[in-house]
Amino acid sequence: MSRSAERDPATRDGDPRFRILNWIGIIDQLATTHANRLLAETDMPFPQFVMLNHFHHRPDEGKTVTGIAAAFQQPQPGITKTIQKLVAKGFLQRRPDPGDGRVRQLYLSEAGRRAHGTALAQFEPALKRIFSGWSAAELARLFADLERLRAWLDTNRD
Fold first, then answer.
1. Nearest residue to 63 via CA among 31, 23, 32, 97
2. CA 131 from chain center: how many Å?
């Protein structure tokens, strides 16, 4: 290893910045696999749940496919495919944009709200087990730290 690499903490396995992002990636993989198992008995694969969750935060706000693709930082064709499945199930509704008739806005339907709630209920027992040894203060601290990281990454998209 060169002297410059020895001085650069990002090249060392022990760099906590790299290790934090690496652990978040591992946690994401483990959590996604676990979520897929929990949702296996529903008509809601995890990618569809994630999409409904996006709508659930602001259920009365219309969204376009282009806007959703940008928010998810995903290619539009993949987002379109998930949206089409949710529309076919009646979980999302398409409505004409009042300002531009060529554009369709997507909204969470009542069936989508119910499906989201059903999916959330599938997570409840697992969430209790996962966080059983955590105090309210520990949960609040972890959430605050993760929110800080999420906000920076969200603000600094390239």
1. 97
2. 19
